[in-house]
Amino acid sequence: MRSLLKLLFGQTAPNLKEEDVMKKYLVVGLGNIGPEYHNTRHNIGFQVLDRLADKNELSFSSNKLGATASYKIKGRSILLLKPSTFMNRSGKAVHYWMEKEKIPQEHLLIITDDINLPFGTLRLKTKGSDGGHNGLADIQNTLQTNQYNRLRFGLGSDFPKGRQVEYVLGNWNEEEEKLLQERLDRCGALINSFVLQGINRTMNEFNNT
C-alpha cells in the first residue's frame, strides 16, 4: 500500500497508527473484585479510578480481564482499567490490555497501596521493587521488568504487629474517610499531569504531597 501511494502521489502516507499509539495511555488501579472489598484500603487503586470516572462522567464496562473506561484530554487517550483477576494475578490483565491497545511501556501507570507511607501520601516512581506487594510482584513477573511507572498511595501502618492483612483488607476509619475524597481528587490531577506533562514534572509536583 505504501509503495502504491508513493507511486501515485510521490510520497508515502503518514504513519498515523504510530502517532496514535504515542498518544495512548493505560492507567491501572489495583484491587480485588467483589462487594466485600469495595471500601477496603487495599482497593485504593479501584477507588482512585472510580473517583476519576465520576469526575469525568464515565461508566465502566465489563471487558476481558477487567472493567474499562476511557476519556480524552487534549488529544491524548486514557484507558482506565480495573483488573478482574484479583490482586495477585494483576499482571495478566495489564499485559493483555497493553498488547491489545499497543500501549508503550512508558505510558503505563499502576496505582497501588503502600503501608510504608503515611496515610494519603503520594509517591510516583518510574521503577523499583515490588516491596512485598503481590500485585506488583505479578506485574513485574509478567512484564519481565520492574521499570514501569507506579503511583503508591500511603495507607499508614497503624496496626498491631501481625495484623497487617486485617488492616489492609479492612475498611477506612472515620477520620480517613473525611480526608479520602480530597486525596482521590489529588490522584486524579496527578494522572492528568502524567499524561500531559510527563513523568518527571509530575513527580516533582506531586511526590510526598
Question: Quick one: CATH superfamily?
Answer: Peptidyl-tRNA hydrolase
Mean pLDDT: 90
Which spans of ≥5 residues are poorly predicted at pLDDT below 50?
Answer: 1-16
- Order of secondary-structure elements: HHEHEEEHEEHEHHH
CATH topology: Rossmann fold
State the strand order across the main sheet: 2-3-4-1-5-7-6
As a whole number of angstroms, the C-alpha radius of gyration is 19 Å
* CATH classification, class level: Alpha Beta
Question: What do these coordinates show?
Answer:
With 209 residues, this protein is of the alpha/beta class. It has a single domain, classed as Rossmann fold (3-Layer(aba) Sandwich). The chain is built from 8 helices and 7 strands. Strands 2-3-4-1-5-7-6 form a 7-stranded mixed sheet, with helices on both faces. α3 packs across α7, α4 (90-101) crosses α5 (134-143) and α7 packs antiparallel against α8 (199-206). The radius of gyration is 19 Å and the shape is globular. Residues 1-16 have low confidence and may be disordered.
